[in-house]
UniProtKB/TrEMBL annotation:
<feature type="transmembrane region" description="Helical">
    <location>
        <begin position="102"/>
        <end position="124"/>
    </location>
</feature>
<dbReference type="GO" id="GO:0016020">
    <property type="term" value="C:membrane"/>
</dbReference>
<feature type="transmembrane region" description="Helical">
    <location>
        <begin position="130"/>
        <end position="151"/>
    </location>
</feature>
<dbReference type="GO" id="GO:0015171">
    <property type="term" value="F:amino acid transmembrane transporter activity"/>
</dbReference>
<keyword id="KW-0812">Transmembrane</keyword>
<feature type="transmembrane region" description="Helical">
    <location>
        <begin position="342"/>
        <end position="361"/>
    </location>
</feature>
<feature type="domain" description="Amino acid permease/ SLC12A">
    <location>
        <begin position="20"/>
        <end position="469"/>
    </location>
</feature>
<feature type="transmembrane region" description="Helical">
    <location>
        <begin position="48"/>
        <end position="65"/>
    </location>
</feature>
<feature type="transmembrane region" description="Helical">
    <location>
        <begin position="285"/>
        <end position="310"/>
    </location>
</feature>
<feature type="transmembrane region" description="Helical">
    <location>
        <begin position="163"/>
        <end position="186"/>
    </location>
</feature>
<keyword id="KW-1133">Transmembrane helix</keyword>
<dbReference type="InterPro" id="IPR050524">
    <property type="entry name" value="APC_YAT"/>
</dbReference>
<feature type="transmembrane region" description="Helical">
    <location>
        <begin position="198"/>
        <end position="222"/>
    </location>
</feature>
<feature type="transmembrane region" description="Helical">
    <location>
        <begin position="21"/>
        <end position="42"/>
    </location>
</feature>
<feature type="transmembrane region" description="Helical">
    <location>
        <begin position="367"/>
        <end position="388"/>
    </location>
</feature>
<feature type="transmembrane region" description="Helical">
    <location>
        <begin position="442"/>
        <end position="462"/>
    </location>
</feature>
<keyword id="KW-0813">Transport</keyword>
Length: 493
């Protein structure tokens, strides 16, 4: 280790194995959005309405992942989104995307440790919730401080728990549909009751796009891990190629089973967007099948999911701050690494922000609400940045006379993929709360959309200060050989 605390070259270590990357890609898209909020999607849009929304959102996420895979295998770096936006579009966009993503996950860690306390209250309601939140934060900080392999192993096993739960759920659900469990045949009759299979038309499907979009957020973590993967040219494409089938299996089939067993008119589904584990659609299906301990089992799984989300959030935000430092967008101190390859200053800074956000949830609920609102759309904004970066990367690659065979991984159906992602991201962002505009409710508009002007302020503020311009395609640096610290040179252009 040198005098600055680096491990010899100031770089994070490539400690993630292929199985870690694969499971992180899978675990990133399985969370409380599927375990708890999926029921509200069915109640809003009906069985086929929810399936339609999840299918199109899943297709968008798949194309987004292939776009990310093409760039990540060409230039595998830790905290890649800001770097790709800076290299392929505009340094100002890299600055805005990076700080946007870091802020999003730093706030999400605080939200998740608060949620972990709510989940623990299911078993131990008399213990103060802040104690459970403090324990969760210490556990997450410890895992991220040890090594990237410790993070990878933890995520592997927590993701495996979620995967096994869904597989068991699908098996129990199918047996229940055919009457083998639960005592009577259900079939597809819930697909045709009242207004089913479609309820509420396109506006309802659009509202479910929002729910589905939040459910899928986290899949882009595989791009963050590329810089610490032992073999990114192999592990990243493998993980991404598996995402499509996993989305079909773990989302489409899950929504189908829930919709078949529980009618969209069920009052339990209407409340399933809350943290009440007793009305999780998974719990309801297990109870229909006659499993008495369903609530406790699902509570344990959801606790695992929440801890996994916070763990991933701490990792993602730390690596993004590290990347911002090496790109010249954040103080150099955050780019220092310890002997084990962990960017400890970035980890401490992220922990402090998460802790302050959590404290505000106790001392100042209004401040906490605004912080959470400010991070609400940042995931979709990050996806927008990935899509436009890939579109520009591929166009620059061809314009500069390169053969696509030179790429280690090819994104599917270019340019359809990134264009579809751009359109759906804009649609979801605009469709967050259209009724607020209809009623000119400026408070709701600000709470819902505050992350959009924040990103615009970051983008144009940096642009005006550094006088950056959108990089012409013929001058875009598509070389895979440049390390991420070279990105700071873009600030001088």
């Amino acid at each position: 280790m040198d005098e600055n605390g680096n491990d010899g070259n100031g770089q994070v270590k490539r400690g993630l194995k292929a199985r870690h990357v694969s499971m992180i890609a899978l675990g990133g898209c399985i969370g409380t959005g599927l375990f708890v909020a999926s029921g509200s999607a069915i109640s809003q849009a009906g069985p086929l309405g929810a399936l339609t929304a999840y299918f199109f959102m899943g297709m968008m996420v798949y194309f987004l992942m292939t776009s990310l895979g093409e760039m990540a295998t060409n230039m595998p770096i830790s905290g890649s989104f800001a770097a790709y936006s800076a290299k392929y579009v505009d340094p100002a966009l890299g600055f805005a995307m990076g700080w946007n993503y870091w802020f999003n996950w730093a706030i999400t860690v605080a939200v998740d440790i608060s949620t972990a306390a709510l989940v623990m209250a299911f078993w131990l309601p008399n213990i103060p919730q802040w104690i459970w939140s403090a324990i969760a934060l210490v556990i997450i900080l410890s895992i991220n401080a040890m090594s990237v392999r410790a993070f990878g192993e933890t995520e592997f096993w927590m993701s495996l728990i979620k995967v096994v739960t869904i597989i068991i759920f699908l098996g129990v659900g199918c047996l229940t549909i055919f009457g083998i469990m639960g005592g009577h045949f259900i079939g597809l009759r819930n697909f045709s009751i009242k207004q089913a299979p479609f309820v509420g038309g396109f506006p309802a499907i659009l509202s479910v796009f929002v729910v589905a979009g939040f459910s899928f957020q986290g899949t882009e973590l595989v791009g963050i891990t590329a810089g610490e993967s032992q073999d990114p040219q192999h592990s990243v494409p493998k993980a991404i190629n598996e995402v499509f089938w996993r989305i079909i299996l773990f989302y489409i089939l899950t929504i189908f089973v829930i919709a078949a067993i529980i009618p969209y008119t069920s009052h339990s589904l209407l409340g399933s967007s809350t943290t009440d584990i007793a009305i999780s659609p998974f719990t309801l299906v297990f109870q229909r099948a006659g499993l008495a301990a369903a609530a406790s089992i699902m509570n344990a799984v959801i606790l695992t999911s929440v801890i996994s989300s916070a763990n991933s959030g701490m990792y993602a935000s730390t690596r993004m701050l590290y990347s911002l430092s090496n790109s010249g967008y954040a103080p150099k101190r955050f780019g220092k690494t310890a002997a084990n390859g962990i960017p400890y200053y970035a980890l401490i800074a992220t922990t402090v922000v998460s802790l302050l956000t959590f404290i505000s949830s106790i001392a100042g609920p209004k401040i906490y609400m605004w912080l959470v609102a400010a991070s609400g759309l940042t995931g979709f904004i990050a996806w927008f940045g990935i899509a436009i970066s890939h579109y520009r990367f591929r166009r620059a690659f061809v314009k500069q006379g390169h053969d696509l065979k030179e790429l280690k991984y090819h994104a599917k159906l270019f340019p359809f993929g990134p264009i579809l992602c751009l359109i759906l991201c804009i649609l979801v962002i605009v469709g967050q709360n259209p009724s607020a505009f209809m009623h000119f409710d400026w408070t709701q508009i600000l709470v819902t959309y505050i992350s959009v002007p924040l990103v615009l302020v970051l983008y144009f503020g940096y642009k005006l200060k550094k006088h950056t311009k959108i990089i012409p395609l013929e001058k875009v640096d598509i070389s895979p050989s440049h390390e991420e610290e070279d990105l700071s040179k873009l600030n001088d252009n």
